[in-house]
Amino acid sequence: MTNPQITLGAINMEAEDPTGLATFWTGVTGAEQSVNGESVYLPPNGPGGFGMFFQRGTVPRSEHQVSHLDLTVPWGSRKAEGERIIGLGATFGWEVLEEFAHVQWTTLADPERNLFCVAEHPPADQQGA
């Protein structure tokens, strides 16, 4: 039996304001919006990118977020990317810089309070140094 070739097609999110939230994520990813009524799709922005789909929420939002996005940026650019995304409307949460040798990250929240992380991984020869 061969292994399936599974890739991420899109991340689907319910939102109070799908267009507004999609506009924030357009700024983060650089993708072009495709609007269909109240739904908005952001296609992957280049190889290795990911799509996002936004639609109006149908039930009250839970206080507990059960999953979140981990976005990876090149080593040495996490702080600048975090500041850029905060400039787009994100809120700073916290940083984890020394807990793991293989990753550092900044946790942010988008305008509708969805948590996500901006992470960087040091080159293999710098891990644990």
Automatic annotation (TrEMBL):
Q: Which residues form the Glyoxalase-like domain?
A: 11-118
Protein name per UniProt: Glyoxalase/bleomycin resistance/dioxygenase family protein
Q: Which UniProt keywords apply?
A: Dioxygenase, Oxidoreductase
UniProt entry tagged with the keyword Iron: no
Do you know which InterPro entries this protein is assigned to? Glyas_Bleomycin-R_OHBP_Dase, Glyoxalase_6
Annotated Pfam families: Glyoxalase_6
Q: Which domain of life is it from?
A: Bacteria
